[in-house]
Every structure is written in structure tokens, then in C-alpha cells.
Amino acid sequence: MDNERLSLPAILILVAPVLLIGFFSTSPAYEYNKPDDSMLIVSFKKSTMRLTLCTQEELKKFKAVAKSRRKHMQRASRVCGSRERAPLALTIWLDGKKVTDKHIFPSGLRNDGLVFVYDRFKLPKGNHKVKINISDHRKDGSGEAVSFSENIKFAEREVVVVEYDKGSNKLFVY
Amino acid sequence: MSIDETKDPVAKAHRKAPPRSKQTNRLIPWALRPGNTILVSVQEMFNRFFTPTLNPLYYLGAITFLLFWVVLASGIYLFLFYDMSSHGAYESVRHITQDQKYYGGIMRSLHRYASDGLVIVILIHMAQVFFSDRFRRYRWVAWVTGVVIIPIIWFEGISGYVLVWDQAAQVMALIFADILDILPINSEPIPSYFLTNESVHMLFFVLNYLHVAIPFLLLIMAWVHCMRISMPLINPPRQVTVVILLSLLGLSLVKPAVSGAPADLSTLVGQAPVDWFFVPFFPLVSGLSLSPEMVWVYGGIGFALFTCLPWLVPEPKKHKQTGSSVTQCVVNVDLESCKGCVLCQQACPFEAMKVVPRTDGEPYEQQAEVVPTRCAECGFCVNACEFNAVSMGEWSKSAFQDHIESLLQPESSGNGSSAKPSVIVFVCERSFDQEKFFNPKKTRLAHNEEIASMTIPCIGVVSPAIVDYSISAGAKGIIVVGCRGLDCHYREARRRLAFTDNSSISYRFLVEKMDEPNVKIMLVSPFDVDSTIKEIDEFNELIKSNNLA
Ligand code: HEM
Ligand code: SF4
Ligand code: SF4
């Protein structure tokens, strides 16, 4: 076998796939975004309020026994209400048109974790009015609401990220 | 592995390309037959250009290994200089490519191009084992591990591209993140890890580590892949290796792999190169005509379907036997005769014959034991055993010998003449349909009465001892007809090549007999009808004239 030679056509057959690799490993290129495109990404995490809170009476009762308990037990949620947190109502308007209106549930098996929001929108470059409302959706309507409304100039292929700041409880452009 | 061409029947039996004629192999399930016919035609075409000993289509598993070694070696080199952080990655790759003069750039290019080559060769390897019906029953482990390897290699490709952290990496990372995000593995949306240039660390890191760790997993998978294949062929012929390596090197010099502009998550990527071997559908996902959910749906269906294929393809109807060949039966070891000599184990191509400690108190240390689920019913062990301890249904060594004797009786030639056959043709049931040649009503042989024939499961059952037996029983010449090139269904030809330098193996191969003037080994394709008949006739004439002389 070792003294057998490869013929020229045989060598060409072996080289052919390598030529294919040379071409198709990069080409034809694909235009993922046009020059006019830009993008808005709304991405943040937020802790919403608990769905049910302790009544005044329950709280009083809890405080009375709290002193005799160890530290980690001194949380109201252990005594009254469930750990479940409220879903987040998210509404987004772009140039006055409602593009998203949904409820996002908190993470965790018992819906007791953070709410994660990630949404993105491709827009033509230029000025756009972006309005975002978020609110903790508790049944009695008592959740906190945050509103964001701004005229944003999107440059060519620019990605604008809107985030939420826990400290100031505000949505802002990153 | 060095093989003298003059001693190698594969090389010797294939000097000329045969004329064509249609023939379907009835042992192949009907669903695979059209594909099988195309496959065999392409192999034949390649045989003409390469000769069967160098035909790369018979070494696809080995070529896959070769490319894998190239990817691994170049990858280890790149890793030495690579900066795993998202801030340093781009610059370190640029440094390897540009500051290291040619060397680093070549390593990087080889790494990319050999990976692409791996995709091509794996797909052809897969198509070949499928259409040659070598993926079912006793081969299911190789098939299923192969199917599992595919998504792993795909992941390696994507994570590898992300490592470069240029514009192409940026789009790939985002699309891949969208696809991963469908899985309920993480409460935080996965694309949000690629939100800003500052937030990118974590997933980037994970991808990096996996990209480096997974090749070692692949090595283990490749080992499992070949676990039930004795002596797998993992090195392609030297000439083929050299041409593949040189052409990859040439491509690396002519078109070195380079990075695009650095990734910048604050802008959208415009035009970017696409590696069509790894991510042909990413543009579709990006253009929203294929949702990430559907990637999982199609991928999941495809994966499940491919995994189950060995059990979905219907068994072929049992071959209407024309000789005394009996396949599809269970192999049995008669412990009373077994001496634990390991010959049968050495003969077995699928690791189905085990030698275990003695259980019956006989004064031998070991005994043979067959693992039925791994057994291909090829019959090699039956003939390898020098103590007649193995049988396969009605097929036993003594039954084989009895049949040889009966073939040499005058009446067995079948056309009523009383001439005694002088030549015995052993025909592998997978090489061609013996009915076409030897049935007295259909035969095109010049002197059918002088030629006795018998279908056998594979030429691997014709041991040197069987040749000697046939001669002593009165045969003047022996022809053994097997499959083309290295294309033996039971891998006999492959193992024989692998064994050539292995003097520790005491199992005897037919190759020992090939230089004897009264023995002819013909390795044919199902298309070889006319030339096969002609060669048999010629050999018969030769034997006759030798005898007269
Ligand atoms: C890293 C990827 C792979 C490598 C390195 C590899 C390598 C090999 C090798 C060396 C053999 C033994 C060939 C022989 O000596 O007969 C083999 C056989 C086989 N491979 Fe692969 N293979 C790979 C991927 C695949 C894939 C993706 C499939 C199909 C889904 C597959 C299916 C098979 C089957 C069914 C056999 C048994 C064929 C026989 O017994 O003749 N392999 N492979
Ligand atoms: S070749 Fe025969 S005697 Fe030797 S181990 Fe196998 S079955 Fe036993
Ligand atoms: S018939 Fe014998 S040699 Fe062939 S696979 Fe089965 S055990 Fe192995």
C-alpha cells in the first residue's frame, strides 16, 4: 500500500473539499443588520412586592413573639402571608404605538424570586419616543408603578439599553 | 501499518475497473437500496481514481480521527497564548495571528479549517455507514454515540467562534444565547449576559471553559464509539494523510483565518462572515424566519429520529439461500470441546467473543463465551476454532467440510452431467448474488459443470485450513469471491490490514494462501457481473491446463 501512488485526479478529489472549506467557512457573508437599523433593548431585573402582606394584627402578634425567636425566623413572611411575589406588568410604547403589554412572573418555583425583563426591538435610526410603564401587579392594585418616557436619538446601528435602578426606583438609559 | 502491495489481495485484485451492470444487494433493507446503489457507484468511481487500498471513502472514520488530531494539536497551541477574558480575548487572538509572523496564524487557520473539514467528513461517514447498512443491530452503539457526538461538535464550533470575540463572534453569541434561552435552565435571560461590553464576562467564561474541556469528552466518546469494533481503523493511508495535511496547510497560507472588527455590544453588527459548515441556519434565525423555538423543535426531532434509526429501518427479508450458507442464527460454544485458546476471540470483528475464567472444572484456565447482542453472525469464530467448539445454527466447521465434500460429487454440478467439479467458488453473500452466476438455468459461465459454488456469510470464514481441506477433498482450484476493497461488511479486510504487522495474533487469515497458484481471491463490487464471470472462466481454464500439463 505504501508504495502505491495517488494519481493526479485522486489528489484533486482530495483537495476539492479543502477548496470548498476555504470558500464556505466565511462566504457568502450575511448582512445581519442594515445600516439604517438600530435597536432598543429593555433589560433589567427587579424584585416585586409580595402578593399578600401581613395584616396589622398579624404583625403585632408576630412582634410579640419575635424576641424569643432566633434571628432568621424574625421575618414576617414566615409567620403570615405567602412568599409569592407579584408579577410585573410591562407596557412599552414606541412612537405612541403599544409594542408590548404583558405580565412577567417572578422566577423561582414558588414565584418568589426576581422578575427578569429582556425585550428588544429593531428600529430605524433616528428619533423615537420611548415610553415604558412597569408596575407590580397585585390584585388589590396596591403595587408600585414606575414610568419612563423619553425622546431618544438612535444613531446608525446604535444599541440603546434601558435599565432599572433599584436605588432610585427609576428606569434609565444605560 | 506497512503493507506490501504484492502480498495484498485488496491491491492485487483490483487492477482494472470492471464494466457495469445493475445488481441490488438483497441483504440490504429495501429502504436503503437506492442510497446504497448510489453509494456503491461513487465508491467504484473513487476506486478507479484511488485504487481500493487508497480510497478515502473506505477510511472516513480514520480521516475523522486525523482531522480531530489536527484540531486538538492546533487548539492546544492556541490555548497557550489565548487570554480567556472578554477584554483580552480579541487582542490575544490578534497577537497570535499577526505578531507571531506566520506560525500562529497557520495554527489558527489549521484549527478553523480542520474543524470545518471534520464537519464534512463526519457527514459523509454518517451517510456511508447508513447506506451501507452498517449502523443497526450489533453496531447500534457506534451509531448512537456518533449521533450524540454531532451536537457536541456543533457546540464546539460555535463556542470556538465566540472565543475570537470579533463581530462574527458577537452575532453568533447573541443568536446562540437566544437559542439557549428557550431552555428552562436559567431564570435570568441568557441574552442579557451579552447586554453591554461590561456585562459580558460570565457566559463568555463558561463558553471558554467548555470549549477547552469538551475535546476531552469527545475523546472518551470516540473511544466508546469504537468500543465494539475490534481493531478499528483509525489511521488513513500515509499518502492520503499527507495530501489532506498539505492541502489544509496550503489553504492556511493562501487564505489565513483572520478576525473581523472587535465585538462591540453597543452597536449592531452589519455584515459578517458566516461559517456555513457550522451555522448555516443562523442567518435564518437572525432574520426571524426561523424562531429559536423551532431550532429546538427541528433539532430535537432530527436528533430523536437519527438516534432511533437503527430500530426504525425494517429488517430485510431473509436472503433466499442458494448454497448452504445459514446466517442469522445464534452462535454457540460447546464447552466440552473448548480449550480456551482465544482464537475465536481474535477472529471476532465485533468484540462479541469473550474469553472468561473456566466454569466447568475442565483443566483449562479459560473458556469462550459469546455476547449475543454484539454478535453479527459472521461465522468467523466458527472457522477460527481449531477444536470445532463453535457452531452457528446449522453452520459448523464439520457441516462446512461436509458441504465441501458434497460439492465435489459429480451430481452437485446441477445440470445432469456427471463431470466432477474441479473448482470450488466460495461466494460472499454480500458481494454478489450467486443465483445469477451458478443457477444452471441462468448461468453465463462457459463450463458450469466444472465449477461448484457455495454462498458463505463472508470470506472471513474461509480460513487457510478450509482451503487445504478443499484441496485434499479433491478440488483442483479454489476461488474466493468477496467484497470490493476495504468494504467488507464484517470488516474482515480492514482487520487484516491492521493485523499485517501483528505477529502476536495466532488467528490465520486467508491472505496466507493468496500466492498459491490454485487459489484466487477476487474482490468484486455488485456491479462486476461480466468481468467476474470472465475471470472465473479464465481461472477454470488455467486450472484445467495446469492439470493436463
Ligand atoms: C468525531 C467523530 C467520529 C469519529 C472520530 C469516528 C470514527 C470512527 C471509526 C474510526 C470507526 C471504525 C471504522 C472501522 O474501522 O471500521 C467508526 C465506525 C462507525 N461510525 Fe464513526 N466516527 C465519528 C462520528 C460518527 C457519526 C456522527 C456517526 C453516525 C451518526 C458514526 C457512525 C459510525 C458507525 C455506525 C460505525 C460502525 C461502522 C462499521 O462497523 O463498519 N460515526 N467511526
Ligand atoms: S477458539 Fe475454540 S477452543 Fe479456542 S477459545 Fe474459542 S471456542 Fe474455545
Ligand atoms: S459470529 Fe463469531 S466472530 Fe462473528 S460476530 Fe459473532 S461471535 Fe464474533
Q: Could you tell me the CATH topology label of the largest domain in chain A.
A: Immunoglobulin-like
The helix-strand sequence of chain A is HEEHHEEEEEEE
**Helix fraction of chain B by DSSP (H/I, runs of at least 4):** 40-55%
- Stretches of chain A where pLDDT is under 50 for at least 5 consecutive residues are none
Tell me the radius of gyration of chain B.
Answer: 28 Å
Radius of gyration of chain A: 28 Å
CATH class descriptor name of the largest domain in chain B = Mainly Alpha
Instruction: Report low-confidence residues of chain B grouped into runs of 5 or more.
Output: 1-24, 319-329
Shape, principal axes of CA atoms of chain B:
elongated
CATH topology of the largest domain in chain B: Cytochrome Bc1 Complex, Chain C
Assembly status? heterodimer
Give the averaged pLDDT of chain A, no decimals.
84
The count of β-strands of chain B is 10
Describe the largest sheet of chain B. 4 strands, parallel
The count of domains of chain A is 2
Distance between the termini of chain B: 41 Å
Mean pLDDT of chain B: 83
Please state the structural category of chain A.
alpha+beta
CATH class of the largest domain in chain A: Mainly Beta
Unique ligands:
protoporphyrin IX containing FE, iron/sulfur cluster
Tally the beta strands of chain A: 9
Write up what this structure looks like.
The complex is a heterodimer of chains A (174) and B (549). With 174 residues, chain A is α+β, with helices and mostly antiparallel strands. Chain A folds into two domains: 37-49 and 85-173, Immunoglobulin-like (Sandwich), CATH 2.60.40; 51-84, no CATH class. Chain A has helices at 8-24, 56-66, 76-79; strands spanning 30-31, 37-46, 88-94, 97-104, 115-124, 126-136, 145-154, 159-165, 170-173. In chain A, strands 5-2-8-9 form a four-stranded mixed beta sheet, with no helix packed on it. A four-stranded antiparallel beta sheet of chain A has the order 4-3-6-7, with no helix packed on it. The longest helix of chain A has 17 residues, at 8-24. Chain B is α/β, with parallel strands linked by helices. Chain B has three domains: 1-28 and 395-549, no CATH class; 30-312, Cytochrome Bc1 Complex, Chain C (Up-down Bundle), CATH 1.20.810; 330-393, Alpha-Beta Plaits, CATH 3.30.70.3270. Chain B is built from 18 helices and ten strands. The chains are: A alpha+beta (174), B alpha/beta (549). Chains A and B meet through helix 1, strand 1, strand 2 and strand 5 of A and helix 2, helix 5, helix 9, strand 1 and helix 10 of B. Strand 1 (30-31) of chain A pairs antiparallel with strand 1 (271-272) of chain B, so a sheet runs across the interface. One iron/sulfur cluster is lined by residues 331, 347-348, 350, 352-353, 370, 375-381, 392 of chain B.
